[in-house]
Amino acid sequence: MVEEKLIILPNVSHKDKGVLMLLSGILGQLGVDRFYRGQVGLGILKLITWGGCGIWVLIDTILYCVGSLPQDADGRFIIDKKTLAQVNKNITTGISSKDKGILLLFSQILGVFGADRFYRGQAGLGVLKLLTFGGCGIWALIDTILYTIGDLPTDEQGNMILDKKTVELLEQQ
Question: What are the domain boundaries of the chain?
């Protein structure tokens, strides 16, 4: 039996970036993403302002997807656990040049127009998603959930799309 080399980092939170992004996109106006991060005060503020009338939700979603790595209340980085598992396997082939954060941003903000499917190189599904407005939003929501907590998404060649910010942090260690 082959043992996997596990990367254990003291500055990494036990929380998952995929879950954080899902909470931000779906329940961000209620401040659930901030509660998940351990930022109770900001969670309450976000809740009573209805996510800053949606502006705070949009900014948080963009920052979680393509900004610097979010941190929990103890200052530990919240990383994508699916990407961590792939890096732990030490596999360097079959990795896409595309970024999971950008894919999630497209899915959450422009998913009803099929932008995430076009980004993955799936033009046919992108057009279908565009013509059906993301299956009246249901297909867009399902894609977002699958990208965040399901298996790693793949591009048109079948290469895994990893979270680049997580990979950068792991390479620094």
Answer: 14-78, 81-172
